[in-house]
TrEMBL record:
The keyword Membrane applies. It comes from Mangrovimicrobium sediminis. This is Flagellar protein. It is found in: Cell membrane; Bacterial flagellum basal body. The lineage of its organism: Bacteria, Pseudomonadati, Pseudomonadota, Gammaproteobacteria, Cellvibrionales. GO terms for biological process: bacterial-type flagellum organization.
Length: 130
């Protein structure tokens, strides 16, 4: 009878170890699944999903420690935005020029605009074209 009790105790120990092993494997599988899904989501979000971005930053330049002028392309239109002090103001709007963006001249446009804004040019201040 004593051997039956020992044998039953050994079976209980083996079955509880097997159950613990199954639980650990299930937990590892769930953690691996979560990591794989998060990696996939990051990859999909980085590519833009549909392949065409609705909003694209063309150029940006700093005017001070908290102020920037940003040129953003939205739906075939370039928006020149003043960003600073917790607010965004539209400074100018013009049709997008894909040749200018491809040639790298958009950065030059941003530098010229920033220079005029910093220099206090009267044409830039009044919004009139020279």
């Amino acid at each position: 009878m004593e051997t039956d009790t020992l044998a039953a105790g050994g079976v209980d120990t083996i079955s509880s170890m097997a159950m613990l092993g199954k639980t650990a494997l299930s937990l590892l599988f769930i953690v691996a699944l979560i990591l794989a899904l998060s990696y996939l989501l990051r990859r999909l979000n980085r590519s833009g999903g549909s392949g065409r971005q609705l909003l694209r930053q063309v150029a940006s330049t700093s005017l001070g420690p908290r102020e920037r002028v940003v040129v953003v392309e939205f739906n075939g239109t370039w928006l020149v935005l003043g960003v600073g002090g917790g607010q965004v103001n539209k400074l100018h709007e013009t049709p997008a020029d894909p040749e200018l963006a491809a040639s790298g001249q958009a950065g030059q446009f941003a530098r010229q605009l920033a220079g005029r804004l910093q220099g206090g040019d009267s044409a830039a201040a009044t919004g009139k074209q020279p």
